[in-house]
Design goal:
There is one protein chain. This protein has a domain at 11-78. The chain has two helices and two strands. It has helices spanning 11-31, 45-174, and strands spanning 33-34, 41-42. Strands 1-2 form a two-stranded antiparallel sheet. α1 (11-31) packs antiparallel against α2. Residues 1-8 have low confidence and may be disordered.
Length: 179
Amino acid sequence: MSPAPRSSRGLGADLADVGKVLDELTEVVGQARSMPMSASCVVNRAEVLGLVEELRSRLPDALGKAQDVLGDRAGVVDDGHREAERVLAGAQAERRRMLAQTDVVKVARGEADAILQEAHEQAEAMRAEVEDYVDAKLANFEIVLTKTLEAVERGRHKLSGAHELDALREDVDARPLPG
């Protein structure tokens, strides 16, 4: 049997071909004529050597491809580790950014609460000032009104007093003079 030509098939196909050649070699040895009273057998030298040569020709390709796959595997694993580290570094950076934003939000909320508290306090102080101002103005107005009412009352009293004098004059004029 002559060696099969090398192909550009994948590692699985080359290993399958090597397996077939090994199966053929096993079959040749298994069907070989036994030597009487011995574990030895007679095999066709050319056939066995052809199969061994075919194995020899296929194994370097299969082994080379296997080593390439193992080398690729190591490269893929290394690439995976590098990618995992990159993703992890990105996630940690995002985590730090989000924590910083959370801190910023907390600070902003604190400042907003302080501003609101100060605004409430200022509004309350302004309300108290306005109430005091209005109370003072109303008190002044009350004083002015009281004085105005007193002046009106005095004026009315004077007016009513003038009528009394007129009535007294009429009374006096109507009385006969003594004498």
